[in-house]
Amino acid sequence: MDLGHIRNFSIIAHIDHGKSTLADRMLEITGTIPARKMRAQVLDSMELERERGITIKMQPVRMEYGIAEGAPPYGGAPSAMRGGKHERYVLNLIDTPGHIDFSYEVSRALKAVEGSILLIDATQGVQAQTLTTLEMARQSGLVIIPAVSKVDSPLARTEEVKMEVALLLDIDPDDIMEVSGKTGQGVKELLSRIVEKIPPPKEEGERGDTRALIFDFKYDNHRGVIVYVRVFDGEIKKNDSLLFSAAGEKFIAGETGIFSPEESPRDSISAGEIGYIVTGIKRPGIASVGDTVTLSKRPSAPLAGYMNPNPVVWASVYPEDADDFPELRLALGRLRLSDSAFSYEEESSGILGKGFRCGFLGMLHLEIITERLKREFGLHLVITMPSITYKVTLKNKQEKIIYSPHFFPDDGNIIKTFEPWVKVKIITPLSYSGVLMPFLFDHEAEVGATENFGDNRSSISLDMPLRELMRNFFDDLKSITSGYASISYELGEYREADVTRMDILVADEPVPAFCRVISRRRLETEARSQVERLKKAIPREQFAFKIQARALGRIIASETVSAYRKDVLMHGSKVVGGGDVSRKKKLLEKQKKGKARLKERAKVNIPQDVFLKMMRGNE
Q: Considering 457, 476, 497, which residue would you say is the last residue of a domain?
């Protein structure tokens, strides 16, 4: 394939700005997918993606686009063109997620392309995640093509938003494309702009080099690991003997091909192209994102890969039934093959048994992984309250890194505690700035620079503890700003923290899954809230039991869950009557003693949905 006729690009944007819909129109206009097979969000193949209307996994696709000489752009496969000269272009698109939790997916996609379409919603304007993804694209040295989407909407502020983007990029507003993924308006012109502005790929290595960068991979039960690659140098053919540079593992290419958008076999994939290689390897831990695939007989120098993602949120996952532990291990291994940003390691708890401590890039990432474990593998799980990493200095001068709250030392053993902070950027209408400040103070935020720009909106920069960002910050921010605010963040440094461990006791037994590390200043409020929420969520038993919050060596809050009461004075449909009143007292006393014996021996059973409700903070 002539490198001059290849264009590799991605679409980057804030969540819900129309990336997947725009990709649908591109596939339709280029004839990549026949009209009879078209459906909404065609590149979002995962059930959860379609259900939630968000992109979770990046998805590559190859399109063919022809431009007739001396004629306006023509969409469709070149074979369908009639008469005249035309140039055929191969457009490799990688559709990326927009939610901040999946920014690692975006960063990997950007390493495999030469340009990006920066998509901004005409009804919402520049958002916080827009700035984050734009900065990532600039750092990768990509050509940026700005486009305003949803221009057909009656709520569109097209001209105002174009001015915002023009100021952001320091360009002429007339250079910004206007498109609608819904109607197809401006999509053909955008495809032509891609061909015109985005440079073709170049071979970067020495002559004779063969190198391909792995930007993603998945596991197939029959074919093993399938790696998604961008070929930078040379050509990779089916049956070639290949080598993973970092892993040092050799394998035979069982199949090579492209995405259209399904996997379509080809005899080879060459420099500048994006495609896949079937490795046949079924062992975990061999293939890794960022590794280089090269010829085993003539290995080339590896390409610069990716930085490993740092987990932001930690939670422990245990099987409800201890016999399901091997299945859980297998399921986590399979998920790790399709999501390299997720990590796990084995741990054990005296009450919950054997399980895994898992690291996630955010709360949505945690929710998606646990939901996939439930749906794709049919597992019933116990999930602990999400936590972050703390560094503690003990009185014996020993330093420890704490991943799970129930391993957090008692206060009497700690000299200092350090926690991670985050640098946050919030974009909100000016009218909400006043109500935001008390909210930010409540979340221990340190407000920095505030800038006003376009359409009476302001950008607020602040630092805050990651712990507070997890305390329903996103939902509460959206609520108090009527959904208009947007947020992006990145990890900062560790700072000293004034926190303590709070245990939740059910029937006098501590439940590790409900253990939390919280700020001392919010201790009583959080203790009361957790106890009351758990009381509403947990089913009643045949005996009464207490739910208590314990911290700093004392009980902070307590509630009693009343027992189910059977009326022993009823016998069938008749009330026990006649005789002396002592007969009734005798029956009631007998019931009271029975419940006391039951309370001593019985254990409170906590269903899985209670753990999920507590994790999500649902009432």
A: 497
